[in-house]
């Protein structure tokens, strides 16, 4: 019996080879697709050469359709399996460069229509097609998968399904807006398309997005990943056979809740209410700054209310329109930038960092520890007091435990991750550290003290990184015996949520030290910009003039609430007055003083006395319960701190009222001007890093794409004009920098 | 592609009985200078029964007592000479958490004989024996009784943590007011019980699920698994019919008939087995109830002594307990690969090769697990990439493997199986005329064990 089975496999292999042979003679060689037949099931394997991911580019599409046509024409083939042999990726999406090269929206619409036609053929296929999904199945990849008759996914953390188009300012343009609501229901479809969120395989199964799950396998006679894909294929082939033999039905059993929901949504009135509610929510959240979500709602509505033809037409047209918008160009620019800032352009460090030590268990120190331990870094968290240490350890534990509550981790995984953390009060174990990150209080003499203490105990290769938001790294390094090993790593709070890491190098910092810091940051999941040392580096330096203007505007009598609403309606995620409270008034004061000294008149505008006065009254912002607003535990609505009225009145500046638009541009142009100056001075290496830093670290409006993209899209001349106008009215803090003037005088753009 | 064991269907069912010991061994004996020889005088077990059958109204220590009585009767040993008693168990009955002591007292052992209980999942009885070996080898004891027990007919089903907490707090409440305020917090869902699961604490994965993934990882087909399970049942039936399962002692269950044999040896047909639906990975997995071991009640016990003591007492001896190893690995993806890791290690330690072994006795948790272990042992790639070895150890020849059935057919009372394996190995060596036996087992937590049993010269 055993013997027979093995022999059968052997025969099968021969048959397989023969078939492949006879077929391939009739075909041109393919680069993206390998196509074989198992019994009467065609197996289409995707694997684009020289790329980490499969994307639905033109070549892959044409090869795919060629193969599908052959499958449909063949008498022997009764069903098909579509699978990727690329580890960690099914299809990551459509090729967005394809859109970028289009000049008109009609061209983009045509691309959409081609996609629609292709997927319609799959949907109408009389031979069942099974999508076997392992790894990312996003965007166009998801649209392809939901056009198939059946979906099987590996229950792996890497397997995620999603429609992230909205994050690029577009919509699912290959039938996704029409098929998704039918498959998962209207509310879930809206949620997926409007948030762009990734959905893990187990949840996708519960939602009805996939039909079967396959558990990832451990080691066998091959590496686990390889065998898992092979197994997925075996399982998918069996299901494909079952489907073509009508032994398996593609109909899914719906739960009671699902049945009730779909019944409710069959009532037109209920549907109208859903559209209305979703639209209201979108308008509130996007402030009308992002056109894509509203168009998605519109397209879905058209399809449901007016039928398929109208729906598909609307989808392709709106897709074309959206691809041409500034917002979409800005968001795609950010996407590209983010990809670049997730690479280590300094190469692999000589010694991989495995043992990390963090000094200071405050909010930042513990945050850095949290994003390190869960990536497998052995981490020492050292503090000066047991109370401080305990608070920090609790923060790390809570961060991990919250993931357990959300089922992103098991309690066992939490415990095992938490065991990577050692809390201590002394320098035991620092002799093994590969990197020390200090996150002690922002005080130069204290930083010098810990630097000297640390250098006495660490090994020669160990990197000393300082997590500071404003203290120049070369001043910190001045106390070091080995300044080539000293670097700045500026994290943003809360560390586990904020994606950016700003790495600061001095003239003395060695390339290997930088490579090491970037490698650690990437491991921690950060998007990284590397900037040159200088007062305020890049991020803090851009923020400071804008903050100065915030003070000035408040001094002019603009209410904090009004200022907040003006900034959020411009696209900032947090209002400007609230931001001061969140950062901490004392920190803002500290930074303003330091940078004011360094940069002089360009950082003037607001009166720093305002901050000083607030600090002396104990209005430190959220952390002290009072700032511009009053913060109370458990109270959601924020009330203005009326004690501020007196302070503001005493520092009042009497000027002619600014228009709302002027207020917005006074803030933004100062930010942008300073960012461009950073590029001009070489603090920034590239405009891309400037945009990524501004958006991911400081909340610069993503729909504008960052200060540099904004200049390109809005026009350098227009910005210079505004700056000149403000300069005349308010002073030299608005004087445009040379590089900006150069761009205004030429057709030069930051992005070609 | 296939290991040599897969040569002919007919050979599967024909265990070789002809003189394997005739071949020359790498070592004449595994005796070591200056280390006491430790011998098995004899070992017994009560029949292993599917849970929920004749033993269902008993408690674990009742089963253990029966095994003790059987051992005392079989060996005729005086209770007073026993220095120490060790028992293994897995799912503990909370009332008799040191089940070894309760059973020993109930079986009439001297109350001056200390007893303790060990737990190491499916290798608990192995751990009990090895603990005994250690006590004797270090000169602390001369005579030890080791064994194991499991009663899956009754498992502790607990109240939920919420209501347990409430009950404990009620104990401490002093006034009526305090009590009432505690009781007012009661919610109906507090009553939902906590069931014990045969699942890993670390991964929450049930063992059957892991076995199915393991079989898939090694590309072990459903048909191969069914075929192996059928072999186990057929060989067990044959051994039962021929009276080879001589370690069994009858057990008169109070209020019921005397139980004399294992009750779930059921050779079926491949056609019947093929009809079953997968039990864990639905609807396309390969592990079914027919190719898995079943929940079992049972107990075993063994008399272990220092050789000189046993000879002085005039015993005829069964076997030496020789080199042993414990191994552990990833509890997620390699949960059941203990034998693969343990086998080459114990052979190396003993200075033997796979060819020196005349009788293999492996614990059969699942057909898929056994066949996956065979493939892993026969793979250089696996040896190099996961075990840090240069070459594979090779898979055991099937004609020497579990010839009298295994856990799939005889049953698997978690805490008791280890002694059954050793006794099967020792009895087979005597019957078939071999010298060395290799016992191996996997256990929850991703652990494993192997030991060499050497036949006592006749």
Automatic annotation (TrEMBL), chain A:
Location of the 3-hydroxyacyl-CoA dehydrogenase NAD binding domain: 356-533
Superkingdom classification of source: Eukaryota
Domain 3-hydroxyacyl-CoA dehydrogenase C-terminal positions: 536-631
Marked site positions, Important for long-chain enoyl-CoA hydratase activity: 143, 165
Catalytic activity: a (3S)-3-hydroxyacyl-CoA = a (2E)-enoyl-CoA + H2O; (3S)-hydroxytetradecanoyl-CoA + NAD(+) = 3-oxotetradecanoyl-CoA + NADH + H(+); (3S)-3-hydroxydodecanoyl-CoA = (2E)-dodecenoyl-CoA + H2O; (3S)-hydroxyhexadecanoyl-CoA = (2E)-hexadecenoyl-CoA + H2O
Enzyme Commission identifier(s): 1.1.1.211, 4.2.1.17
Pathway note: Lipid metabolism; fatty acid beta-oxidation
A GO cellular component annotation in the UniProt record: mitochondrial inner membrane
Site (Important for hydroxyacyl-coenzyme A dehydrogenase activity): 490
GO molecular function, one term: transferase activity
First and last residue of the signal peptide: none
SUPFAM superfamilies per record: 6-phosphogluconate dehydrogenase C-terminal domain-like, ClpP/crotonase, NAD(P)-binding Rossmann-fold domains
UniProt xrefs under NCBIfam families: fa_ox_alpha_mit
Subunit structure and binding partners: Heterotetramer of 2 alpha/HADHA and 2 beta/HADHB subunits; forms the mitochondrial trifunctional enzyme. Also purified as higher order heterooligomers including a 4 alpha/HADHA and 4 beta/HADHB heterooligomer which physiological significance remains unclear. The mitochondrial trifunctional enzyme interacts with MTLN.
Name this polypeptide is given: Trifunctional enzyme subunit alpha, mitochondrial
UniProt lineage: Eukaryota, Metazoa, Chordata, Craniata, Vertebrata
Designated gene of the protein: HADHA
UniProtKB/TrEMBL annotation, chain B:
Name this polypeptide is given: Trifunctional enzyme subunit beta, mitochondrial
Cellular component, GO annotation: endoplasmic reticulum; mitochondrial fatty acid beta-oxidation multienzyme complex; mitochondrial inner membrane; mitochondrial outer membrane
UniProt gene name: HADHB
Location of the Thiolase C-terminal domain: 316-454
Keyword Transferase in annotation: yes
GO MF term set: acetyl-CoA C-acyltransferase activity; acetyl-CoA C-myristoyltransferase activity
Subcellular location: Endoplasmic reticulum; Mitochondrion inner membrane; Mitochondrion outer membrane
E.C. designation(s): 2.3.1.155, 2.3.1.16
Entry keywords, A to Z: Acetylation, Acyltransferase, Endoplasmic reticulum, Fatty acid metabolism, Lipid metabolism, Membrane, Mitochondrion, Mitochondrion inner membrane, Mitochondrion outer membrane, Transferase, Transit peptide
């Amino acid at each position: 019996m055993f013997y027979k089975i093995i022999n059968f496999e052997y025969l099968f292999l021969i048959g397989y080879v023969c078939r492949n042979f006879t077929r391939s003679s009739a075909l041109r060689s393919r680069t993206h697709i390998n196509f074989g037949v198992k019994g009467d099931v065609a197996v289409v394997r995707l694997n684009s050469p020289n790329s980490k991911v499969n994307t639905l580019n033109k070549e892959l599409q044409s090869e795919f359709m060629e193969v599908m046509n052959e499958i449909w024409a063949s008498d022997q083939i009764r069903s098909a399996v579509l699978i990727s042999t690329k580890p960690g990726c099914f299809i990551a999406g459509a090729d967005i460069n394809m859109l970028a090269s289009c000049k008109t929206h009609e061209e983009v619409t045509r691309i959409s229509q081609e996609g629609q036609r292709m997927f319609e053929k799959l949907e109408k296929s009389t031979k069942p097609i099974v999508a076997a999904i392992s790894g990312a199945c996003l965007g166009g990849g998801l649209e392809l998968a939901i056009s198939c008759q059946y979906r099987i996914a590996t229950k792996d953390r890497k397997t995620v399904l999603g429609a992230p188009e909205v994050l690029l300012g577009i919509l699912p343009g290959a039938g996704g807006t029409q098929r998704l609501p039918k498959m998962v229901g209207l509310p879930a479809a809206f949620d997926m398309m409007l948030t762009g969120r990734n959905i893990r395989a187990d949840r996708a199964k519960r939602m009805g997005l996939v039909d079967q799950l396959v558990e990832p396998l451990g080691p066998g006679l091959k590496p686990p990943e390889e065998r898992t894909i092979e197994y997925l294929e075996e399982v998918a082939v069996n299901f494909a056979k079952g489907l073509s033999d009508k032994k398996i039905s593609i109909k899914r059993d719906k739960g009671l809740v699902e049945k009730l929901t779909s019944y409710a949504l069959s009532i037109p009135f209920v549907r109208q209410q859903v559209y209305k509610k979703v639209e209201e929510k979108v308008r509130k959240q996007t402030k009308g700054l992002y056109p894509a979500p509203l168009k998605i709602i519109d397209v879905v509505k058209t399809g449901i209310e007016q039928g398929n033809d109208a729906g598909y037409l609307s989808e392709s047209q709106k897709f074309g329109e959206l691809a041409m918008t500034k917002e979409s160009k800005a968001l795609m620019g950010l996407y590209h930038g983010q990809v670049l800032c997730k690479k280590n352009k300094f190469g692999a460090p000589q010694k991989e960092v495995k043992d990390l030590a963090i000094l200071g268990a405050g909010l930042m120190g513990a945050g850095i520890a949290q994003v390190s331990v869960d990536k497998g870094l052995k981490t020492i968290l050292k503090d000066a007091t047991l109370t401080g240490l305990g608070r920090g350890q609790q923060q790390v534990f809570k961060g991990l435990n919250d993931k357990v509550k959300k089922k992103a981790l098991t309690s066992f995984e939490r415990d095992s991750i938490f065991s990577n953390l050692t809390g201590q009060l002394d320098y035991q174990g620092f002799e093994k550290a590969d990197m020390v990150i200090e996150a002690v209080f922002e005080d130069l003499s204290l930083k010098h003290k810990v630097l000297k203490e640390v250098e006495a105990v660490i090994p020669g290769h160990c990197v000393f990184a300082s997590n500071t938001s404003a203290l120049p790294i070369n001043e910190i390094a001045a106390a070091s015996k080995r300044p080539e090993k000293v670097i700045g790593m500026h994290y943003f709070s809360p560390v586990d949520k904020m994606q950016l890491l700003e790495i600061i190098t001095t003239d003395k910092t060695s390339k290997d030290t930088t490579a090491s810091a970037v490698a650690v940051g990437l491991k921690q999941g950060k998007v990284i910009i590397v900037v040159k040392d200088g007062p305020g580096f890049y991020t803090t330096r851009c923020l400071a003039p804008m903050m100065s203007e915030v003070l000035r505007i408040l001094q002019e009598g603009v209410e904090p609430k009004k200022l907040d609403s003006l900034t959020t309606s411009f696209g900032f995620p947090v209002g400007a007055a609230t931001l001061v409270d969140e950062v901490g008034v004392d920190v803002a004061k500290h930074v303003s003083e330091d940078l004011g000294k360094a940069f002089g008149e360009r950082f003037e505008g607001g009166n720093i006395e305002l901050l000083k006065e607030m600090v002396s009254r104990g209005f430190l912002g959220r952390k002290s319960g009072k700032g511009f607003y009053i913060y109370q535990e458990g109270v959601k609505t924020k009330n203005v701190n009326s004690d501020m009225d007196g302070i503001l009145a005493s520092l009042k500046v009497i000027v002619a009222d600014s228009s709302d638009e002027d207020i917005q541009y006074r803030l933004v142009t100062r930010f942008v001007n300073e960012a461009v100056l950073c590029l001009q001075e070489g603090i920034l290496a590239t405009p891309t890093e400037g945009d990524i830093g501004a958006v991911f670290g400081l909340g610069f409006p993503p729909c504008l794409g960052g200060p540099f993209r904004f200049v390109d899209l809005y026009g350098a001349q227009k910005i210079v004009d505004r700056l000149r106008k403000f300069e005349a009215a308010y002073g030299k803090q608005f004087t445009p920098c040379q590089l900006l003037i150069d761009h205004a005088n030429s057709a030069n753009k930051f992005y070609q | 592609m296939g290991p040599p064991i897969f040569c002919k269907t007919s050979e599967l069912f024909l265990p070789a009985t002809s003189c394997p010991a005739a071949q020359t061994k790498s070592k004449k004996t595994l005796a070591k200078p200056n280390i006491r020889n430790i011998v098995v005088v004899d070992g017994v077990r009560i029949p292993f029964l599917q849970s929920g059958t004749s033993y269902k109204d008993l408690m674990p220590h009742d089963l253990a007592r029966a095994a003790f009585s059987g051992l005392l009767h079989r060996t005729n040993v005086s209770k007073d000479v026993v220095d120490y008693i060790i028992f293994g168990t897995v799912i503990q009955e909370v009332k008799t958490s040191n089940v070894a002591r309760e059973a020993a007292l109930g079986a009439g052992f001297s109350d001056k004989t200390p007893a303790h209980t060990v737990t190491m999942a499916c290798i608990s009885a192995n751990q009990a024996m090895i603990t005994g070996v250690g006590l004797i080898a270090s000169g602390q004891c001369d005579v030890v009784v080791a064994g194991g027990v499991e009663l899956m007919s009754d498992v502790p089903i607990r109240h939920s943590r919420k209501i347990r907490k409430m009950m404990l707090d009620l104990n401490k409440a002093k006034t009526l007011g305090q009590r009432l305020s505690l009781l007012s917090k009661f919610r109906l869902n507090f009553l939902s019980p906590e069931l014990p699961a045969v699942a890993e604490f670390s991964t929450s994965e049930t063992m059957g699920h892991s076995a199915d993934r393991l079989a898939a990882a090694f590309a072990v087909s459903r048909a191969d698994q069914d075929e192996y399970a059928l072999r186990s049942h057929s060989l067990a039936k044959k051994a039962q019919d021929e009276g080879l399962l001589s370690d069994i002692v009858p057990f008169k269950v109070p209020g019921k008939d005397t139980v004399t044999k294992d009750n779930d040896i059921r050779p079926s047909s491949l056609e019947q087995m093929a009809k079953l639906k997968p039990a864990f990975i639905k609807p396309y997995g390969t592990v079914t109830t027919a190719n898995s071991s079943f929940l079992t009640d049972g107990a075993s016990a063994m008399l272990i002594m220092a050789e000189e003591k046993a000879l002085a007492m005039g015993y005829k001896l069964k076997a030496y307990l020789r080199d042993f190893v414990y191994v552990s690995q990833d509890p997620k993806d390699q949960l059941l690969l203990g034998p693969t890791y343990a086998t080459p290690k114990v052979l190396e330690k003993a200075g033997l090769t796979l060819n020196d072994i005349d009788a293999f006795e492996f614990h059969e948790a699942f057909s898929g697990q056994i066949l996956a272990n065979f493939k892993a042992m026969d793979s250089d790639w696996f040896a190099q990439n996961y075990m840090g070895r240069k070459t594979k150890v090779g898979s055991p020849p099937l004609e020497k493997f579990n010839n009298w059935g295994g856990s799939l057919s005889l049953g698997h009372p978690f805490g008791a199986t280890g002694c059954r394996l050793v006794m099967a190995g020792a009895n087979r060596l005597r019957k078939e005329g071999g010298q060395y036996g290799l016992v191996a087992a996997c256990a929850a937590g991703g652990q494993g064990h192997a030991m060499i049993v050497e036949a006592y010269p006749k």
